[in-house]
Amino acid sequence: MVTFQVSRVETTPFDGQKPGTSGLRKKVKVFVQPHYLQNFVQSTFYSLSAEKVQGATLVVSGDGRYFSKDAIQIIIKMAAANGVRRVWVGQNGLLSTPAVSGVIRERVGHDGSKATGAFILTASHNPGGPHEDFGIKYNMENGGPAPEAITDKIFENTKTIKEYLIAENLPDVDIAAIGVTSFMGPEGQFDVEVFDSASDYVKLMKSIFDFQVIRKLLSSPNFTFCYDALHGVAGAYANRIFVEELGAQESSLLNCTPKEDFGGGHPDPNLTYAKELVARMGLGKSNPQDEPPEFGAAADGDADRNMVLGKRFFVTPSDSVAIIAANAVEAIPYFSGGLKGVARSMPTSAALDVVAKHLNLKFFEVPTGWKFFGNLMDAGLCSVCGEESFGTGSDHIREKDGIWAVLAWLSILAHKNKENINGGKLVSVEDIVRQHWATYGRHYYTRYDYENVDSGAAKELMANLVKLQSSLAEVNQIVKEVRSDVSNVVHADEFEYKDPVDGSISKHQGIRYLFEDGSRLVFRLSGTGSEGATIRLYIEQYEKDPSKTGRDSQDALAPLVDVALKVSKMEKFTGRSAPTVIT
Fold this sequence. Notes:
six-stranded antiparallel sheet, alpha/beta, 583 residues, eight-stranded mixed sheet
């Protein structure tokens, strides 16, 4: 057994950004600077209570993006030096973010050990490669992202750190080979266990969904299916779940080999970046050569986000979570006893609110950030939740879960088609969505993203929107000058949330303009990019009249879009005449 020594390496603080629930994200060139990653990891160890480090079990894995393999070896050496007892690593360093959450919550080691936390190496839906993005975040013993109290401590520690501990003479561990490697250090034995990336997650999914029912759907001659992992970590699960367990054709999997640079693409599952899937589903600019599949889905880099498509039909994430909630009890065994409650992020459309009211469910509107859902779930208040940024999930873990959402949709399709699975016309994705609109009304919805905007200009735009809220008369004058057919603004504020579980208050969570007819404009600055600022503009209009729910979304929203751009002075502040992405 190899023996290692602990080295204390002098370092200086870096000018860091405060890590949020999505962690610390920067360009690779920043992370590879001497001591940069080490400072963050040591600052995290300093922020945790002793029992979460000394003698503890930690998970270290991620989406496989460039620099992950080097980072894993560094974190293993630092964990050993800080007194961690064992580190669990997914084979080849691959674990999706939802799988990490599940491993923390469910996995029991051969010696009875349980994980108390995890370093997840991902920049989510951001591109990967030597000149692109890398990220790291810490998840707690409940499987969810570190709360603000911990991320604040990490940030403070990064500003004062003077040294970090590392076992420099510890040899690199072969993370391609499943098995346990043991070492001996000053405080005793230290183990690194490399385990199969998919097994625990597959077991968890089989405990939630009826795989036999879904398998019948996928084997039906008139049901076709397509899944695009965008060369992210979802590829490590796609073959096992969809082909081996559920009987889908291997040809139904697109881009399911995980790559360090995501094949040169942008691993963000939306209509702009999932080009190959969008074309195959008949939603591209040219008609596909073959008849599009009945169902298509895509994942992002770390497989926590999802996009759901029907044949020539896009399902908005806001509609998706509402439809899952409306059908969960009937279609998904895990929820057969009923839903505890539902929740959405504030910018997400109010489609879920209408379902909650109709089904008499507890409902919560929270700021953007999965930790807010986690608090509700830990308190037993929420079963299904979602956000408009292609994130959907449930209380089986404490992260959003892209493959879970796909299996939820397949379960709903299987339930709706149980009588005609072997013949007759299938109930399609589009049929399910249109029936939902007929029952609950439709929330026309779109999001405009202005990426890499000058940070100063973005802050000025937001400050001007806040200032404007003090005079609704002035706002409504602007509205009527732009479009007389848009109703009046009746309320405007900055969204603030008091957590019903821990009483914490989150301020400045987005600027809202609420209209008399239930329409909304929401403006937020997003922290998920690694450079500049991203301004997100959310535009929503509710339509109850069933004869008016079939309009093209962009046509229906055009008047509100005009108003939003004029009220915000978007082009004046940003210099942009069009958004980077429209979803």
